[in-house]
Design goal:
mainly alpha; 2 domains; 9 helices; 0% strand; elongated
């Protein structure tokens, strides 16, 4: 029998971390009891209950997987593009990142409310910080994608993040949570005696749900607008960088042509210098010969006079 079965542990972790916050401990203990006598029992019993913020993010990953993947994909694109961006571009994208994480946090609060958990402002801040960490740090993104968080995350994008105490298992960083639909609402209890206010209550409940749905639609549309804006900015930056690269290539081609011309001119100049040096040498020899003749003639005249 193997000493460790990560796949089995991950399967159980996926099951219990996808449950409601209040259901986690009973479900974990029940699974550990079922596995009593096996080597999986102890690891399952050690699975830590997630904090409220971690549970909300885990729930968001399962209920709104497409939206979370868009956030993580945008974060990866921004991390890759940061090296070539100006300070102004980075500041603009930082603002957009904050707007996006705030919008997705609003969605997370709505999802948690549907699951029966009220999210306080303090917890919402931790959820937003976790989403921000996932956008600026690749390891944090993997931790969020796993849906096995036990504690909220925080990252600057500069220092390495220690995720040891933030995920249920080390293998979580290579795991992706399975999307999970919301549980169907419980069927209303049938009553023998009609409620005289039933219609009014039903209308009020429907109106409340409509208001919540409108809020969720507004948050989703705001999130979409932010993501679309960020994508447009990145595409514009890509075109700008491509144009700058074309200019550099054009200038390089001009310099290479100039270098070839200078090399040809230099060869011609060196050849002309060699010819000039040869001519100068011949002229000096002719001058020396003429000077010798003059000297001899002067000597002959002086001898005749004496």
């Amino acid at each position: 029998m193997p000493t460790e079965d990560p796949a089995g542990i991950l399967e159980i972790a996926e099951e219990v971390y996808g449950l409601g916050l209040g259901e986690f401990t009973p479900a974990r203990d029940a699974r550990a009891k079922e596995l009593k006598g096996t080597e999986l029992a102890a690891p399952v019993r050690k699975l830590r209950k997630p904090s409220t913020a971690a549970w909300v993010v885990n729930l968001l990953v399962r209920r709104e997987s497409e939206q979370v993947e868009q956030v993580l994909a945008l974060g990866a694109a921004l991390r890759e593009a940061q090296a070539t961006m100006s300070a102004d571009d980075l500041r603009a994208l930082t603002r957009q990142r904050r707007q996006l994480t705030a919008a997705v946090t609003t969605t997370a609060r709505a999802v948690a409310r549907d699951a029966g958990v009220r999210v306080t402002e303090a917890v919402a801040d931790q959820v937003e910080a976790t989403l921000t960490a996932a956008m600026v740090d690749a390891d944090c993104a993997a931790a969020v994608r796993s849906g096995l968080l036990v504690a909220p995350l925080a990252a600057t994008g500069v220092d390495e993040v220690d995720l040891t105490e933030s995920v249920a298992l080390p293998a979580a960083l290579g795991f992706t949570a399975k999307p999970r639909a919301a549980e169907p609402a419980a069927r209303p209890e049938l009553r023998v005696v009609p409620d005289p206010d039933a219609d009014a209550k039903a209308l009020a409940a429907a109106q409340e749900r409509l208001a919540e749905a409108d809020a969720e639609v507004a948050a989703a549309e705001e999130s979409l607008a932010i993501v679309a804006s960020a994508v447009d900015d990145l595409r514009a930056r890509e075109l700008q960088v491509a144009a700058e690269l074309d200019e550099v290539r054009r200038r390089l081609a001009e310099l290479e042509t100039s270098a070839e011309e200078v090399e040809e001119d230099l060869a011609e100049a060196e050849e002309a210098r060699a010819e000039a040096e040869e001519a100068a040498g011949s002229a000096r020899e002719a001058r020396d010969a003429a000077a010798g003749v003059v000297e001899r003639l002067r000597g002959s005249r002086r001898g005749g006079r004496s």
